[in-house]
Specification:
- 36% of the residues lie in helices and 14% in strands.
- The protein has a seven-stranded mixed sheet.
- Helix 11 links the parallel strand 7 and strand 8.
- The longest helix is centred in the N-terminal third of the chain and has 25 residues.
- The radius of gyration is 23 Å and the shape is globular.
């Protein structure tokens, strides 16, 4: 952070040069760690339950994880890429796609189109309506009605469309909603479509939450204002301040653009050095995220912590506070870009985070519109999506731990250039991995597939159907892979890593070791879609990997 009053071209050039210098130092430091002794896994696990912490043996967690199945919903299905009208017309939402959302191990999995009936169009928004009516209108697309069997719930808009397409009542088709109460996702302070941007709005927000920002750049001061506001939001029982929605939305517009520019100036492979904390999926769980960060950041100021933070993706969808999670993470990234590393997950994709049909009021796009109104909310979602496209797909810690959201990109034999390809400065910044232009070159298609693999792949539980390189078909859907022990061993041996940290799957205690304890799955949101799972975070320090588990809290705690 530079003590300049205004960030002109000279100030921005200096900041970029300083950032590249910092990245060069980090790269050299990471290589220096390469010859350190092998990383060890600590035999003690820190467990946090009802605000109290205690240690348990690692064997307790491992035995518990393996003696009971993970309580989790079917993993997010991949958008199908079979050349159907879904790709030719992104507004299409066919009954056939809805029918295949559940999928099967042999069939294609699908995610609903990004535009479902009644999905928050500005024509449905009435600025003269009461806040209660407006709040009801804003979730009209997700109101649940009885399914064809009288019990299975489905979204009302989807039922209407399916009845129109089938010439009668929809039969045999339903979508299982997530276990969150839609009323918990409504917001009281939504911004109307006629709201005007004024300097007074932004200055008032900065004065209230910006603190002492005289020594910071305008961008950093805006980020600090959002960071302080999100802490106030938590202190207020996770409720927004009256009249603060517009200021937050307008500043998020600026912040998303600045984070996008910051990411474009960083390497495509995010290398950091320990000590570091690693987070898996967050999925809109601001309660857990804020609890952890409040505990881990001394004095509430990132600049005073020796640790770095690696986030493995899936920040949005399925939880209550996707907007708030992105505001908090992006603010921290802008304040201390060398301390915060954000990787891309499969939900940082416009066809997933914008999927109103499948996720309803728990989708990131829906929550942007619900808080900020249809016009400002749509713009915040678009700007955040542009930043998502520049998130790195891979990272590493001390050149010993390879980090990614899903898993390893497929290998077909011959010279192994996968990491070199993923680290290319010109690696395409796809808004979605599933919107494929007709004129895309074979090379771009190959890179698109590599990006899809890193975000969507899973470890194989049963390796009997994998190929000679340790890869096979994934029940999530067409084009998605599983990877096994052979793939893990080859990758780690080729690139000199010792472990793989990945996320992407709910685990009973938020953590799971697999593939001869060389693959860590980290899931950092507890009580996921109403489950009783814990949230896991990993600390890497002093040559050891230490595990932290926060158990699920009850709603009344």
């Amino acid at each position: 952070l530079f003590p300049t009053a205004k960030m002109g071209s000279h100030g921005r050039t200096s900041a970029i040069l300083a950032q590249h210098h910092q990245q060069h130092l980090l790269a050299n430091n990471e290589l220096a760690h390469k010859d350190d002794p092998p990383i060890q896994v600590s035999f003690g696990v820190l467990v946090i339950e009802k605000g109290k912490s205690f240690n348990v043996p690692l064997t307790t967690v491992i035995n518990k994880s393996y003696l009971r199945p993970d309580e989790r919903e079917a993993d997010t299905p991949v958008v199908h890429r079979d050349g159907s009208s879904y790709y030719e017309n992104s507004r299409a939402f066919s009954a056939d796609m809805v029918a295949r959302i559940g999928g099967s191990a042999e069939g294609n999995f699908s995610i609903g189109g990004e535009h479902s009936p009644n999905a928050f169009s500005s024509s449905n928004y009435n600025p003269n309506a009461s806040s209660a009516d407006r709040r009801q209108d804003s979730i009209s697309a997700e109101l649940l009605v009885s399914g064809p069997d009288g019990n299975s719930p489905m979204f009302s808009g989807q039922r209407q469309l399916m009845e129109q397409q089938q010439g009668g009542a929809a039969k045999g088709l339903f979508i299982r909603p997530h276990a969150l109460d839609p009323n918990r996702l409504s917001r009281l302070h939504s911004v109307g479509p006629d709201a005007l941007l004024t300097n007074g709005t932004l200055n008032a927000f900065k004065r209230t939450f910006g603190g002492n920002t005289d020594a910071m750049t305008p961008v950093a001061s805006s980020a600090l204002a959002i960071y302080n506001y999100m802490n106030t939001f938590a202190e207020n029982g996770f409720e927004h301040e009256d009249g603060a929605a517009e200021g937050l939305g307008r500043m998020m517009q600026q912040l998303c653009g600045e984070v996008e520019r910051t990411l474009k100036g960083e390497p495509r492979h995010a290398a950091i050095v320990s000590p570091a904390f690693v987070f898996g999926d967050i999925h809109g769980n601001f309660r857990d995220l804020h609890y952890f960060m409040k505990s881990l950041i001394p004095f509430g100021d990132l600049r005073y912590t020796p640790h770095r933070f690696m986030f493995l993706g899936d920040y949005v969808d399925r939880g209550e506070f996707s907007v708030e999670v992105i505001a908090f993470l992006f603010a921290m990234k802008a304040i201390a870009p060398d301390k915060i590393m954000l990787l891309r997950g499969n939900h940082e994709d416009t066809l997933v985070s914008g999927d109103l049909g499948n996720y309803g009021s728990t989708s990131f796009r829906a929550q942007c519109r619900n808080i900020f109104g249809p016009i400002l909310g749509e713009d915040v979602w678009n700007k955040a999506s542009n930043a998502f496209a520049s998130l790195p797909l891979t990272g590493s810690i001390d050149h010993k731990i390879f980090c990614t959201h899903g898993g390893l990109p497929r290998y077909l034999g011959g010279p192994d250039k996968r990491l070199a390809e993923l680290s290319r400065e010109d690696f395409p910044r796809f808004l979605s991995f599933f919107q494929v232009p007709e004129d895309e070159t074979p090379e771009q298609q190959r890179l698109r597939q590599m990006g899809t693999d890193t975000c969507w792949a899973d470890p194989a539980d049963d390796e009997r159907m994998l190929d000679q390189f340790g890869f096979g078909a994934n029940p999530r859907g067409q084009g998605v892979i599983l990877f096994g022990s052979e793939a893990v061993d080859h990758f780690l041996d080729t690139y000199g890593y010792e472990m793989i940290f990945r996320a992407h799957q709910e685990k009973a205690d938020g953590l799971k070791l697999s593939k001869n304890a060389r693959v860590f799955t980290i899931f950092s949101t507890s009580a996921y879609v109403g489950h009783s799972n814990g949230a896991g975070v990993v600390m890497v320090a002093d040559g050891k990997v230490r595990l932290i588990i926060k158990t699920a809290d009850n709603d009344d705690e």
